[in-house]
Amino acid sequence: MSPSTPLAPLDPARVSELAQDAVRALMREGESENTLRSYRSALKYWAGWYALRYGGPIRLPVSEAVVLQFVVDHAERSTPNGLACELPPELDAALVEGGYKQGPGAPSLATLTHRLSVLSKLHQLKDLPNPCHGAQLRELLSRIRRAYARRGAAPARKPALTREPLEALLATCDDSLRGLRDRALLLFAWASGGRRRSEVTQATCENVRKTGERAYAFTLLHSKTNQAGADRPENVKPVVGVAADALEAWLRASGIASGPIFRRIRRGDRVAEPLSPAAVRDIVVKRCALAGIETPFSAHSIRSGFVTEAARQEVSLAETMAMTGHASVKGVATYFRADPAQARAARLLEEAPKRD
Q1: How many Cβ atoms sit within 10 Å of the Cβ of residue 82?
Q2: How many CB atoms lie within 10 A of CB 155?
Q3: pLDDT per residue over 233-250, tens digit each?
Q4: Where are the domain boundaries for CATH 1.10.150.130 in the chain?
């Protein structure tokens, strides 16, 4: 059956305006909120730096010369007077005053490379000549990475929240509604494989089901290591034992029977809207303060804590990776925090092996 009003034929050589809007919406929906936030922050910084450096609004495509200037403005190099970069102090102060950066000084190498990758992706999405693909820039960045490595400027890694400090945090959780929630959240995040903040807030009554006595199963359909949402056996993460007990106690006390499991608690012990990923970090920081722990643990410490504790207890690497969701040994290894003092290889002379 043909429509009463024929549709205008589309031009096969170009994407319609409606389709372009749909593509942009799908691209946004396919990115995590944390990723989008980091993109906005990077582009805001580019706009502020460009306006102050060149006296006008930034326009695309950006030239490779501008990107090279950006790199030398922000990458530190050794001088007779110490480390320095080419960003003028007055421009640096203006960026801080304008809210483009938190404080004066050069950014970390990770921040610099992230801002470059965001600019590169923007040019790629807009099908523009990419100033970040030039041979000179690639060689410069390679040399900068080597220089930073020689200076020992390794990327900062959050310490591992292993079993002992985790138990100290749990000891601060009383039987109040907030205490029950925080205990359930910490144990759920840690025991289900070291879940990320966004993954914890994705937990709902619909994807967390009771499977037996002191046992739940959390079906994680989307994560950083499974962004396409592929149906895999390892998507199901067990939550058992004390973690299951804490989860059940929280659900019973809160009365939550559908939707997100972990929620804010308002005045008068009113269970309110779902927690944001940032709130997971705040809970870890707050419980550390209550426990008198000065180690700068964060929400990311839960993931490294799980991996490190699993290695300490000699859990197989395959089992650990099934819980964390890592597809490569290299990926999971980045979360292991070795304690050199406990290394067996460092104690070969302490106890001589018995020989026949």
Answers
A1: 7
A2: 9
A3: 678 999 999 999 999 999
A4: 17-150
319: amino acid identity, one letter = E
CATH classification code of 163-339: 1.10.443.10
The secondary structure of residue 235, as a DSSP letter, is: G
**CA atoms within 13 A of residue 156's CA, in its CB half-sphere:** 10
Domain boundaries for CATH 1.10.443.10 within the chain: 163-339
Residue 67 burial class via C-beta count within 10 angstroms: exposed 0-12, middle 13-18, buried 19 and up: buried
Q: Give the bridge partners for 236, in sequence order.
A: 219
- For the beta sheet containing 236-240, the strands, ordered from the edge strand earlier in sequence to the opposite edge, are 208-212, 215-219, 236-240
**CATH 1.10.150.130: does it fit domain 17-150?**
yes
User: 3-class SS at 185?
Assistant: helix
pLDDT tens digits, residue range 116-170? 998 998 888 888 999 999 899 999 999 999 988 888 766 667 889 999 999 999 9
What is the dihedral sign for C-alpha 286, 290, 296, 297?
Answer: negative
Neighbours of 264 (CB within 10 A): 14
